[in-house]
């Protein structure tokens, strides 16, 4: 038997909005430690990892580890029926083929339940190696979303370069080029408005903007975003989910195009 009760139901709605365009079908894994998801996008370029720790739920019962295959668009449709202040409860029986979402309004005067069929999804669980990153940037998530959106009107790729001076986002396209530099600033009044850079060595990598813009759909979850980079490794773009977990997006850097440019 599985029963998860989340008082801040809007968190689950925001999580789904953040991943449903990237991943169509995925297995949600439930264990005593929490509720998690790990899936690649259809083109196998990006990976999303979500963790909601059990202690973040008001009530968390998971008698045995279970994996629930869901179509994320369908799940998002169900969650759209929940009010932003609703308490959301997920229930599933061991070995059952449905999951029930229950939405309760804060004053308990309206309770809805929606049942959704589960799917059988073959998915290999990808071990994500723990890595030491050469450069870690923490910055306001709205700022990062704005930069990705602005640059995608000019080019298809973004070069993210981290140096002592700051983090630089650059692109070039048919109409021209653009560079946006965010300097480290820790002396702001509100900590979530700070840009903090921890760097062992400078890193400069190229990524597809289409994916970066997709990742920024998680902006409503957190005021800050953490971007971790090392040469040769996928970038990790992480948004905290309240104080109960995180959503992380992994994206491999683009290699071949840079070499083509160097060759020409």
From TrEMBL:
A Pfam family this chain is assigned to: PCNA_N
GO molecular function list: DNA binding; DNA polymerase processivity factor activity
Record has Magnesium as a keyword: no
Protein's cellular compartments: Nucleus
Occurrences of domain Proliferating cell nuclear antigen PCNA C-terminal (ranges): 127-254
BP terms from Gene Ontology: leading strand elongation; mismatch repair; regulation of DNA replication; translesion synthesis
CC per GO annotation: PCNA complex
Gene3D superfamilies: 3.70.10.10
Lineage: superkingdom: Eukaryota
Major place of residence: nucleus
Keyword vocabulary terms for this entry: DNA replication, DNA-binding, Nucleus
Domain Proliferating cell nuclear antigen PCNA N-terminal: 1-125
PROSITE patterns: PCNA_1 (PS01251), PCNA_2 (PS00293)
This protein's record includes keyword Nucleus: yes
Reported function: This protein is an auxiliary protein of DNA polymerase delta and is involved in the control of eukaryotic DNA replication by increasing the polymerase's processivity during elongation of the leading strand.
NCBIfam families for the chain: pcna
Homology family: Belongs to the PCNA family.
Protein name per the record: DNA sliding clamp PCNA
Native organism: Taxus chinensis (Chinese yew)
């Amino acid at each position: 038997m599985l029963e998860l009760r989340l008082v801040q139901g809007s968190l689950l709605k925001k999580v789904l909005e953040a991943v449903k365009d990237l991943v169509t079908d995925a297995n949600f894994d439930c264990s005593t430690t929490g509720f998690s998801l790990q899936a690649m996008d259809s083109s196998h370029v990006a990976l999303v990892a979500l963790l909601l720790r059990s202690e973040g739920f008001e009530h968390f019962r998971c008698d045995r580890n279970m994996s629930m295959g869901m179509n994320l668009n369908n799940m998002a449709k169900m969650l759209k029926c929940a009010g932003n202040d609703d308490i959301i409860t997920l229930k599933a029986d061991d070995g059952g083929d449905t999951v029930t979402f229950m939405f309760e309004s804060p004053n308990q005067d309206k309770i809805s339940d929606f049942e959704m069929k589960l799917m059988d999804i073959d998915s290999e669980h990808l071990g994500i190696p723990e890595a030491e990153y050469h450069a870690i940037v923490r910055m306001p998530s709205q700022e990062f979303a704005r930069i990705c959106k602005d640059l995608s009107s000019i080019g298809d790729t973004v070069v993210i370069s981290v140096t002592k001076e700051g983090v630089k986002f650059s692109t070039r396209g048919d109409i021209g080029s653009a560079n946006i530099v965010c300097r480290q600033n820790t002396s702001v009044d509100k900590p979530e408005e700070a840009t903090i850079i921890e760097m062992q060595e400078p890193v400069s990598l190229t990524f597809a903007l289409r994916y970066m813009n997709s990742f920024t759909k998680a902006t409503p979850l957190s005021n800050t975003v953490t971007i971790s980079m090392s040469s040769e490794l996928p970038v990790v773009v992480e948004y905290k989910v309240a104080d109960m977990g995180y959503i992380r997006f992994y994206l491999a850097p683009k290699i071949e195009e840079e070499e083509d440019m160097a060759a020409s």
